[in-house]
Amino acid sequence: MRATEAARPDRLHDDPLAAAVVASAEQEIPSAPPGAAEFMAIRTRFYDNFLVDSARQVVVLAAGLDARAFRLPWAPDVRLFELDLPELLAFKDGVIATADLTAACTRVVVPVDLRDDWTAALSAAGFAADQPTAWVAEGLLQYLSEPDKKRLLDTISGLSAPGSRFAFDHMDASADDREAVVDALEKIRSMGAEFVATVDDPAGWLTAHGWTVAVDRIPALAVAYGRPLPDFMDPAAANATALCTAALPA
User: Is the confidence at residue 139, as pLDDT, over 80?
Assistant: First the structure.
């Protein structure tokens, strides 16, 4: 989906890694459910905007095939930490080498399982807990159990200096019976993952840890980005996805 979006003349983002990943796939990539590409373009642009003016220390949780280290206009002193499973990061580095890409910031790969204790590994990689951090959890919380989500938030809060920021996405439980959502979840399950609904009150969830939270919705963002959602998309289903940013006082 990111490779297709990058090829559009009115693209909301570019991604030099996406086409290389598609080319390296050893099996057919499943087609996306209707509306998924439009959703992905909006969500990607939202996180891009969040990070453009970010802190000089960035942590991308469950980084997967995220290419922001290579495609965003970073300040030269930014350090970006990518956390994910070792085998996934090894595959990604192979694709990066084949595509001959160079990071626009200092990219630090940290192979961990986010369901375990990853604090020591991040610190050993050079993370500075006394510096403001921009945290990104794109498409992550939906796949964690409630205890794992709480543990992740506790860890982020404990490592965040004043002035830190956090961006994540969340789907309201009210969307569970929408046809578009059911179809998307079935596609996700067919690829071996399991979707777990997140809490319905992300603001309260973080406010209890001292964060100030702002919530944006997909349809409104689509209009703001000049890419209104197509008529075939279910407005209620699209509106059930919240893209959240949180901040600690400086």
Answer: yes
DSSP state of 69: H
Q: In three state form, how does the secondary structure of 73-107 look?
A: CCCCCCEEEEEECHHHHHHHHHHHHHHCCCCCCEE
- Strand partners for 13: none
Phi, psi of 70 (to 5 degrees): -100, -20
Beta strands in 189-240 (DSSP E): 212-217
Nearest C-alpha neighbor of 156 from the set 68, 148, 66: 148
Dig out the tokens for 245 from the structure.
């940013």
Closest to 156 measured CA to CA, from 86, 246, 94: 246
If one counts every other C-beta atom within 10 angstroms of the C-beta of residue 152, the result is: 21
Contact call for residues 180 and 32 (beta carbons, < 8 A): no
Buried b (16+ CB within 10 A) or exposed e, 27-49: eeeeeebebbebbbbbbbbbbee
Candidates 173, 175, 162, 86; CA nearest to 129 is 162
Handedness of CA 78, 116, 159, 52 (dihedral sign): positive
Average pLDDT on 200-205 reads 70
Give the chain's mean pLDDT.
88
Do 34 and 180 meet the contact criterion of CB atoms below 8 Å apart? yes
Write out pLDDT tens, residues 79-126: 999 999 999 999 999 999 999 999 999 999 999 999 999 999 999 999
At 191, list the tokens: 């690829």
239 by Cβ neighbours in 10 Å (0-12 / 13-18 / 19+) ranks as middle
